[in-house]
Amino acid sequence: AVPFNHRAVEEKWRKHWEEHPVNVNDGKKPKYYCLDMFPYPSGNGLHVGHWRGYVISDVWSRYKLMQGHYIIHPMGWDAFGLPAENYAIKMGVHPAKSTAENVANIKRQINDIAALYDWNMEVNTTDPKFYKWTQWIFVQMFKKGLAYEKEFPINWCPSCKTGLANEEVVNGCCERCGTAVTKKNLRQWMLKITAYADRLLNDLDKLDWPEKVKKMQTDWIGKSYGAEVDFKVDGSDEKITVYTTRPDTLHGATFMVLAPEHALAAKLATEETRAAVEDYIFKSSMRSNVDRVQDKEKTGVFTGSYAINPINGAKVPIWLSDYVLADYGTGAIMCVPAHDDRDFEFAKKFNIPIIQVIAKDGKEIENMTEAYTEASGTMINSGEWNGMESAVLKKEAPLIIEKMGVGKKTVNYKLRDWVFSRQRYWGEPIPIIHCPKCGNVPVPEDQLPLELPEVESYQPTGTGESPLAAIDEWVNTTCPCCGAPAKRETNTMPQWAGSSWYFLRYVDNHNDEELVSKEKADKYLPVDMYIGGVEHAVLHLLYSRFYTKFLHDIGVIDFDEPFTKLFNQGMITGKNGIKMSKSKGNVVSPDDLIRDYGCDALRMYEMFVGPPELDAEWDDRGIDGVSRFLKRFWNLVLDNKDKGAKETPESVKIRHKMVYDITTRLNSFSLNTVISGFMEYNNKLIDLAKRQDGLDKETLETAVTLIAPFAPHIAEELWEQLGHSETVFAHGWPDADEEAMKDDEIEIAVQVNGKTRGTVTISSSAAKEEAIAAGKEVVADWLKGTIVKEIYVPGRIINIVVKP
Ligand code: ANZ
Ligand code: ZN
Asked: What EC numbers are recorded for this enzyme (predicted)?
C-alpha cells in the first residue's frame, strides 16, 4: 500500500469537509446538543491540556452523529472579565483589541482539532449584540425583585481591586489571582439566588451528573434543619437569638459566643471589659478571612454580660470570638462544649464549665478529653429530657422550644445571595439609572444594549469605584421615568454573567428581537451533554442552573435545567503531575505535534493518555505508539481491501466482538480503553488476515467506521479507498449481534518437538499469542531448554520446538 502520509490525508479531507459538511440539519433527524465550556481567550493560546476536553466532546459528537443525530456543537468566547482585562493591562493594550487578537489565534488552534464546530453559531460575551441580552436578563431580574442593592462588607481582592462573590473565594483566596481576600464595606448589586435554594438542591436529582459535583453543590447550598433559640440578656431587655442544629443539647449550653460583627457585641461590654471588647472587635475587622478560618488557636474575649439559658434558667457568660461567622445563622451561637469540638477547645482554653448531656451507655465520661460529637445516646443532666434518645429529641426539641415560646423550628442555608457587581472596566455595564426622585430605574429595554464606553484608563481604581465612574459624560444622564438629571450605575457585571446563559444563545445567535426564539429553544435546547473541567462546580454550574430556572419562570424557555448530562475531564499535567503553565516552562503546544504526527494521532493520544475523568501526565513519546498503530491500521485496510476474501466464522465473530467492546467502552466514557481496544483488535485482524489470506470487506469497513470519531481524517480516506462516495459519518454506527459473538471452544493438541504432550481448550478465534500461551501452560514440564520456534496451525495444532 501507499505509505500513510498524514499531512496529505488531513489536508485533503479538511478541505473536503469545508465544502461538504458532514453534520447537516435535514429537519428530520433528532438533535443532539454537545457543548464544551467555552474558553477565556487568554494570550497564551492552547496547550495539549485544553485539547483534551475538546477532543472528548468531538468524539462524542461524531459518535452521536453516526447514531443518526443532527449535532449542535458550537463554540464561543467568554471574553469579559478579569483574565482578559488583567492580560490587557499587563500588555498595555486595550482589552477589546487584545481580546480580538486572542480570539483569532485560539480559533485557528481550535480548528486544528478538526472538531465539528459550527462557527455560524459562534457567540462572544463582549459583543454588544450578545450582552444586550445579558443586560436584558438583569433588567428582568430587577423587575422581579431578584436584583437589589445592598451595602455590606463583601469579599475584596486587594490585588484585583474588586469585590468578589463567595463562590470566587477559594480557601480564603481570590479564585483568579490567589491573593488573600479581605473585607470591604461597599454598596453592591446582589442577585437573590437564595430564592432558588430549594429548587437548586432538589432538582439535582434530575441530573445525570458526576456524584462529586452534585455533592459539592449540595454542600454549597448547605441546607440544615434546626432551631432558633432566644436567650435573654441578664439584667436587660435585649435578647440574643442563636441558630443551632442541636437543640437537643440545650441543657449543656454553658456559654454563648457572638461574632465580633454582631450588632450587640459592643453593647454587651461593661465598664471593666469595654477596652478589651473594643480592641477585639477592631482587631477582628482587620484580619483577613483566611486567618480567621485557618486559626489553630481559638481567640476570644468575655463581654462581661450574661444570658439566661431558657431551658433551665442558668446564667451563662457571653463571649465574642471570630470563629463564629457573622453572616451564617444569626451570627450568634449557644455553646455546648461537651458535644462540639470548637466549643470544647474554647471552653478548655478559657476555663468554662463543660456539662455532658448525652451519654453513650447512660454513663457520664469522667474528665472529658474531647467532645462527644455523635448524635446518638441517652440524655443526662437534662431535667425532663433525661432518658430520652438524643436522636429522637433532636427532631422533637424544635417543637418543644416553639411551644415554650422561646424559639422556633428553622431551616438554614449556607448559600448566600450573589454579589454581582464588579469595580472593573471590562464587563457588561449594569443597566440601571439612579434617579434622585424615582430611585433605581432600569434602562428601558429598547435602549439596550447599554454599550461599554471607551475610557482613557481602564486600570482598576482601588477606591471601590469602577473606572466608568470617571467618565462624566457617561455617568450623567436623565431619568427614563421623570426626565430629571440622574446618574448611571458605574459597576459592571462579573465574568459569570455571560457564561450563565450563553448556551441558550448559540442556537439563535442572530436574533435581535428575542434572547432565543421559542421555536428554536423547543427544537434545539437544552444541552444534552456538557463537557468541561470540575473547577466550576459551584461557580458557573450553579449560576447557570439559577439563570435557567429564572428564564424558565419568566417564560423564555420551557425547561428548567440547562445541562442534562455532565462530564468533567481531568487535567493534563506536565512531568510529575505539575500543572502546565508558561511560568513553569512545561507547556506542550499542539502545533508541533500536529505537524510531526498529524491531528488524528494527537486526538488519539489525548484519549489514550489515561482515563478521561482523571488527571494524566503528558508524555510526548506516547504519541509515537499511537502513530505506529495508525500506520499499521492503514496498511491492514489497504493491503486487504482488494483481495476479495469472503467472511469466515472467525472474522464475523471478531467483527461483532469488536463492535461490542468499542461501543460499550465508548458508552461508559472509557475512551482510553477504546483506543487500547483498537490496538488489540488491529492485531487480531492482522493475524486473521495473514491466516486466511485476507479479510472480508465488511470487517474492514466496520473497523474503519468504529475508528472514525477518533481519527476522522484517516477513516474518511480509507472509507473512500474502500469504494464509498459518501462520507463515513453518514454511515450508521454498527450494531453488535451478541449471538454472533459467541465463542466456540475447540480442543487441540499441544506438541513439543513434534510429540503430543497434552491438549488445550481455546477459542476458535484465538490469536497466535493467545493460543501459544495457553498451550505452553499445559506442556510446561517439557519446555526445559531454549524455545527456538513456536508454531500455531489455527484450529488444529500447537507445536513448540525446544533445544536442550
Ligand atoms: C449548638 C451545638 C451543639 C451545635 C453541638 C453543634 C453541636 P451547620 O450544620 O453548618 O448548619 N453555628 C451556628 N451559627 C454559626 C456561625 N454563625 N458561625 C459558626 N458556627 C455556627 O452547623 C450549625 C451549627 O454550627 C450550630 O449548631 C452552631 O453550633 C454552629 F453539640 O449549636 B450548634
Ligand atoms: Zn484577585
From this structure: 6.1.1.4
